[in-house]
Amino acid sequence: MDIGSLQFNPSFHKEMISKAEEEKTKDFDAVFKKAMDNQDDKALKDACVQLESYMISQLFKQMKQSMISEEGLIPKGDYEKAFEDFKINHQSESMAKAGGIGLAEMMYKQMKNTYKGQIKADSESIIRIDQEV
Predict the structure, then answer these.
(1) 63 lies in a domain?
(2) 71-125: per-residue pLDDT in tens?
(3) How far is CA 127 from CA 35, 115, 120, 121, 122, in A?
(4) CB 78 within 8 A of CB 9
């Protein structure tokens, strides 16, 4: 059986990638909400790193698409293109965990201050029975 002629359906590949990115976006929202509700600093930091990883991978994918020509002597197959996307995702994740471009750290600090401010505002708005109004 000759498998050299088998090709990955390009429209299926694009659909698969877009579905994965859509699911990842839903996951980010759920992870951030859960971390903020539980006031879990580690989970919040992890969510910020995940989001930075996603943003770096999108940046690299757009840079790759903007190249004038990526065709060489031998045209790339669909599997090779899919592998490159997964490779970019893995490299972006490694970069974000190593410090990345600083986006995760900035988001973490700002979000941490936001939920600390919410806690303070909530505690100040509670009317105590033993206090006179």
Answers:
(1) no
(2) 667 777 788 888 888 999 999 999 999 988 999 999 888 888 877 666 566 555 5
(3) 27, 21, 14, 12, 10
(4) yes
The angle subtended at Cα 49 by Cα 48 and Cα 53, nearest 5°, is: 120
The pTM assigned to this predicted structure is 0.64
Tell me how far apart the alpha carbons of residues 60 and 84 are, in angstroms, rounded to a whole number. Answer: 11
**Boundaries of domain holding 100:** 79-118
Count of structural domains, the chain: 1
Query: Residue 122 has which token pair?
Result: 């909530």
The verdict on residue 47 lying in a domain is no
Domain for residue 58, yes or no?
Answer: no
Q: What is the 3-state secondary structure (H, E, C) of 72-93?
A: CCCCCCHHHHHHHHHHHHHHHH
Residue 61 belongs to a domain: no
Secondary structure letter of residue 34 according to DSSP: H
Token digits for 13?
């590949």
In terms of Cα–Cα distance, which of 60, 106, 52 is closest to 87?
A: 60
C-alpha to C-alpha distance for 89 and 21, rounded to whole angstroms: 11
The residue with tokens 């699911």 is: 23
